[in-house]
Amino acid sequence: MALQADAPGSEGLRPKGPAALSERPSDTYLVAVPPPPPVEGDVVELIGHPMSPPRFATRTAIDNAVESAVLPHQLHEIDQVVEIARLGELLVEKDARIALLERGLADWRERARLEMEAHAGAERLAFERERDLVGVIHQQIAAIESAEESTQQAFTQADELRTRVDEQTALVESAQQSTMVALARMQELQMRIDELEDRLRQRARHCWSRRSA
Length: 213
Fold this sequence. Notes:
By secondary structure, the protein is mainly alpha-helical.
């Protein structure tokens, strides 16, 4: 927004119509004012104060009235300019905050991606370890089952050997009993043989005694 100021001593913004001066000013105060240069945008005209004191009290009152009427508009325009500048600063600050939030969001997304990748890697590693552990457990179970089968077979063989030992023990006991019986018979036979020998000796002695008599 451009500001245009009138030259000192110029009439500036004067009210038109019957509300203006009742008399036409003298030709002394009618001075041609050069046209202002063309500007772009809205134009606000600022009324300058005359360098020399006014010659007429009426003109001073009119200038005061015009100044009192235009000054609030000028202050309003200045407030609007200040507000626009403040809004521009707020907009810049908002853009900076948005950029900061976007960078923070990008960082959080990157952290989330890295955490997800790390979590996925940990899950894969845990799954592989669990698979290896399950394989080892199956191998141990197979080895334990094989050992149980071997132990069962060993127990079966031990039972068979125990049965055979019992049978052999029974046979040995039977053989011992048979041997004892045989020994007893042999002793009886020996005793009978001894008795027969005694009898034979006695008969032989009796016969010899008879022959000698």
